[in-house]
# Entry
Amino acid sequence: MTPNIPQHVTPRRSVARSWPQGRLQRPSRNRYEARSWHAARYWPAGLPGGQSGAINSAALGVALGVIGIIIVTALSFVYLGQVLTTASQGTSIQDLEQHISELRQKQQELELEGASLRSIQTVEQRVQQLNLEIADKVTYLTLPDQRVAYAR
# Structure
């Protein structure tokens, strides 16, 4: 337990009581006054809630609690946005992977088709369809010299 030690406390002077009745005058600057002239003008009996401008531990605790709740809420919304973005990107990745597998399958089909078109049997069938004949005698054109001059 803490001991009760008597302390000398100077009470705050009420600004409203020190003013003359009837009109508001600016009070003198006293270092013991807790309220400003504006606060005394709008709330002559004191600020709402008791002491004039004092912040006690309960008010500080409530203020810090509210600030903490606001920060946690803001961080929760940021986290939720990140999760939703990641989920939407996950579905996009799945769609792209499916598209890649379809393209690979189509590539294999095209390679098989190209191989069948290059086969000897297909070439012989095309020769018959186009009514081409096999050349018996082949002649080649030979140039007398490999140098060719152009006339100007």
Summary: The helical segments are 15-18, 37-42, 57-117, 120-129.
